[in-house]
Amino acid sequence: MNVLFVVCDGMADRPVRELGRRTPLQVAKTPSMDRVAELGITGLVDPVAPGVPPGSDVANMALLGYDPYEHYSGRGAFEALGAGLDLGPGDVAFRCNFATVDKRGVVLDRRAGRISTEHAHVLAEALQEAAEDLGAELGVEVVFVSTVQHRGVLVLRGEGLSRAVSDTDPGEAGRPLRRCEPLDSTPQARRTAELVNAISERFREVLARHPLNARLEVPANAILLRGAGTLPRAKTLKELYGIRGACISAVALIKGVARMAGLELLDVPGATGSYDTDLDAKFSHALRALEGGADLVFLHIKATDIASHDHAVERKVSFIERIDEALGKAMELLDLEDETYLLITADHTTSLRTGKHEGDPVPLALAGPEVRRDWVRAFDEVSCAQGGLCRLRGIDIMPVLMNLLGKMGKLGA
Length: 413
Ligand code: ZN
Ligand code: ZN
What we know:
Blueprint: E1 2-8, H1 24-27, H2 31-39, E2 41-46, H3 56-63, H4 68-71, H5 75-82, E3 92-101, E4 107-109, H6 117-138, E5 141-146, E6 151-157, H7 187-208, H8 211-215, E7 222-229, H9 237-241, E8 245-248, H10 252-260, E9 264-265, H11 279-291, E10 296-301, H12 303-309, H13 313-333, E11 340-346, E12 349-350, E13 357-358, E14 362-367, E15 390-393, H14 397-404
Parallel strand pairs: 1-10, 1-11, 2-15, 8-9, 8-10
Antiparallel strand pairs: 2-14, 3-4, 3-6, 3-7, 5-6, 11-14, 12-13
Helix pairs in contact: 3-10, 5-10, 6-7, 11-13, 12-13
One zinc ion is lined by residues 10, 56, 305, 309, 350, 357.
């Protein structure tokens, strides 16, 4: 038996005025999600705890069974893992942006005119070369890679580093680049902040004289760093439960969380992490992985969250309906009576009105061979509040699934 675990990012919402005070899930036509609810058991999930708005890293950690209060150690590590870099214990990773600053160091554009991935790669090569030289001088290994568009990752490797340092990213345009400061009084934090400042300065020098920048309308002449993080010390799902798991996501942060859990990352052509993603391809790759012997496939879909951040009411409703269609096609091929447990939920609530992650619970539906059926027949925030799973925390989901798979050891005699 196996599990298909579908997570739609930020799909849960609050009542929306334009939708007659109903949520997008209440308004969208979702016969397939409703069918999961009807065939199985439902409930509400507090991703972290009631009223706590989680970041996607923390929320997806929790859904995979890792208590963020115990294991979370900064976003940068997940970004690095998601970008395909390996992290050792003690390495410190940062999320980076190519940015545009003026002569005084005031940030004009935090994304350097949304520089193309190709251009960013060219600049990143020069930065990596400079990073190697500087690292040799300072006694630390420095790795810089660009990922998609203006985004990148910086990793510091060596002894005596700390993630207790501040961001250099001021967070919005019109403000000056910040100096990296130690956030505690350890020599490790002080040294890490000094390294970050030296690297930032060297990067600005390299970018200022790079020939590509002379040709760009909006030059990418600085790197902003934020979210210092180290590798969480956590056992993989294989070590914990003896299962083989895989993850399908187009988002580096989620890929990083999945790698921490020891899930294999499956590459799906056409998966973009945006509205234009190929949902059918994502589901068919998930089904193939299950057929190939995976015990659990974690399938993450991003654009529901983007719609809420953009206050795009109609887009959110129509994208939910597209997910439902793709889910329906997959369900025709799944054996929910004897073989597969199908779980659908969201990683958190993202409000169309506020455009932010909120601390409201999310609906969950779970169908499969030995699941008790409750009376709920619709998948949404209000209907699932009547469900047989009642109210769970994010970290409760994995034990619930592993119990059904027969992978939970007995507590006691
Ligand atoms: Zn999220
Ligand atoms: Zn979000």
